[in-house]
Task: inverse folding
């Protein structure tokens, strides 16, 4: 019995001791740095992944069969229209041409003879010195001779064409690639690929934009007629900005129904051959927006599950008694209003150096937290006192 009494006394004492304990002290305010939001005019570029393309590209194929007897160019260099590139053994084609030329002369001789016979019989028929049938045969023979001359001339043209095909020249100015054949290789008519040549100045740059931006680029296309300086530029793979601005050349005829995008083509001068077909680059479109925009430090932005948030400093009243008893406790107004971090969702735009454009979610005059956000959550008490410089790190994206 005494043991039970002692247990009850211990439990009652423990309960009284727990009731007399004070609630835990609230977390001290987090030191932060604040910045006031102000709209301003900004210069920035909309950026799009892009690829350089040749305006014209041709695969060079052999048109006649034979062995490669000469290669006249250096691979990967610039060539000019009409420049000799390859020679195919021309002996057979030269012989065929000479034979066709001789056949033309024979046919022309036969035509002269047939013309003379026809003229002679025409004279004799006027004096009734020859039968009419003989004249008719002579006229037919003359016509056949003329047709033979025409056929021989066409055969000569074919032989001349084949002889020309034995020497392959550049179809236009451009850059030639690696040769697919070497000296002595046998090439077949219409099937053997010799090389590829593509134009290199100017150079096209293709990129895709969302169909919602189509009207914007149609407006830019009309503005390019007034030659706005540096409206279109590109970042090279080396991250350097290409020295020459481009012009909007073509907007594709249709939107891709599967992706909802449309292809845009720019054209850039390429006098120094710095651009090569197939390069990856980034198109920079100078934004023409004149309306002031909100720009904040990128380090003030926090990413959470694909959405972006900013902490705003708000004046609030801290209640005594902790969060569980806040509704019943009295406000602590001894030191006036206190600051709290309030989390707001924002829509981000372009990144400009260390800053980011905010499209929505903030207003002029908002005080945002730019340093000390690592340990904050929505409603955290904050203070601007004793903050030791800006926090390390950048935008949490």
Result:
């Amino acid at each position: 019995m005494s043991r039970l009494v002692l247990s009850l006394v211990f439990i009652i004492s423990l309960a009284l001791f727990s009731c007399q304990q004070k609630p835990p002290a609230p977390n001290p305010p987090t030191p932060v740095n604040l910045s006031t939001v102000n709209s301003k005019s900004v210069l920035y570029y909309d950026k799009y992944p892009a690829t350089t393309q040749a305006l014209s590209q041709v695969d060079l194929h052999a048109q006649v069969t034979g062995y490669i007897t000469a290669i006249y160019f250096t691979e990967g260099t610039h060539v000019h229209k009409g420049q000799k590139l390859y020679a195919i053994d021309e002996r057979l084609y030269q012989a065929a041409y000479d034979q066709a030329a001789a056949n033309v002369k024979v046919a022309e001789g036969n035509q002269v003879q047939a013309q003379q016979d026809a003229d002679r019989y025409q004279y004799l028929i006027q004096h009734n010195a020859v039968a009419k049938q003989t004249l008719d045969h002579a006229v037919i023979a003359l016509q056949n001779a003329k047709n033979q001359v025409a056929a021989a001339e066409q055969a000569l043209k074919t032989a001349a064409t084949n002889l020309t095909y034995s020497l392959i020249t550049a179809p236009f100015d451009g850059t030639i690639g690696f040769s697919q054949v070497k000296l002595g290789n046998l090439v077949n008519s219409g099937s053997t690929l010799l090389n590829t040549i593509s134009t290199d100045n100017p150079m096209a740059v293709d990129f895709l934009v969302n169909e919602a931006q189509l009207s914007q680029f149609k407006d830019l296309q009309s503005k390019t007629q007034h030659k706005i300086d540096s409206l279109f530029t590109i970042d090279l793979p080396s991250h350097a900005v290409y020295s020459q601005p481009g012009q909007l050349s073509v907007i594709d005829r249709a939107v891709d129904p599967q992706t909802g995008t449309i292809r845009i083509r720019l054209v850039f001068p390429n006098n120094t051959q710095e651009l090569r077909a197939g390069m990856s680059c980034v198109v920079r479109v100078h934004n023409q927006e004149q309306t002031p925009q909100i720009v904040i430090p990128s380090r003030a932005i926090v990413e959470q599950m694909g959405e972006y948030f900013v902490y705003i400093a708000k004046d609030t009243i801290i209640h005594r008694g902790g969060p569980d008893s806040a509704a019943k406790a009295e406000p602590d107004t001894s030191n006036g209003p206190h600051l709290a971090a309030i989390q707001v969702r924002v829509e981000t735009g372009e990144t400009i150096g260390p800053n980011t454009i905010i499209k929505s979610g903030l207003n002029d005059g908002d005080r945002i937290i730019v340093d000390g956000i690592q340990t904050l959550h929505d409603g955290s008490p904050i203070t601007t006192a004793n903050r030791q410089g800006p926090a390390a790190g950048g935008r949490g994206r």
User: Anything to note?
Assistant: The longest strand covers residues 338-352. Residues 319-334, 391-397 have pLDDT under 50 and may be disordered. DSSP finds four helices and 24 strands in the chain. The CA atoms of residues 125 and 168 lie 57 Å apart.
